[in-house]
Amino acid sequence: MSMRTSRPARAGQYVALLGYLVFLAFPFLWLISTAFKPARELGSLHPTWIPEHPTLDNFRKAFDEQPLLQAAANSLIAALCAAIVAVLIATPMAYVMARHRSRLSTATSGWVVVSQAFPFVLLIIPLFLVLKNLHLINTLWGLIMVYVVWALPFALWMLVGYVRAVPAEVEEAAAVDGAGRLRTLVSVTAPLLAPGIVATALFAFITAWNEFFFALVLLKTPEKQTLPVVLTHFIGAEGAADLGPLAAAAFLATLPSLVIFAIIQRRITGSVLAGAVKS
Questions:
Q1: At how many degrees (to 10) do helices 190-210 and 265-276 cross?
Q2: Which of 77, 179, 211, 216 could form a disulfide with 174 if both were Cys (CB 3.0 to 4.6 A apart)?
Q3: What 3-state DSSP class applies to 177?
Q4: CA 101, 106, 208, 81 torsion: positive or negative?
Q5: Residue 241: beta bridge partners?
Q6: pTM (2 d.p.)
């Protein structure tokens, strides 16, 4: 009887998962289709999924109209630096909070969760004033500092769970074998935390790569703007979008995240499983 009831439930889960995947894939597939359509098909009253006459004109026009390569380089520098610095700071903090539980660590964990509820609008004025006093307005270093501060709470929250998933007995066994504290952390704990660190760095990178609001407010010079900000230049003053080049540029902007995710997806899967197992 239980098998009969579980099969329909399992089938329902697969149907729901398939519907969710279709829901997620639809915008991306339509974006790809739009990027390769000529202007005549973009203005057609009967749009089609597959371009009848695919063309690369939208990509050429996008690169001719806007400095996409420079913007992509700016986004890459900001996202990589923010991800690396956030992980370097969050990893030792997460270890201390997970291994030495106290009222202070509990309060810190609560503050990390609460800080994620703050909207961008409440933070932008204080951040702008601080960066102005440091002469970091309209600089990538100022934007990187903002991204690091914004990514730290989430990175810390993620890494605390991964550290707690590593049994303390493993470190105790290494200490019994004569390994010092530093050697234990480097040779024993760090390799076990590697999947979690990679996953955390990826999320920090994607967050910074796609971020728009802070970059829009803090960066004014065109050659210093990031890719999400440059994409808005394809929209005219009256809201009319140059749809073909915009779709082409947006498609190119999504590729780095997809490529990085595809390369390290196995590490991410391992880190998720490790974070789900509590000793």
A1: 120
A2: 179
A3: coil
A4: negative
A5: 235
A6: 0.80
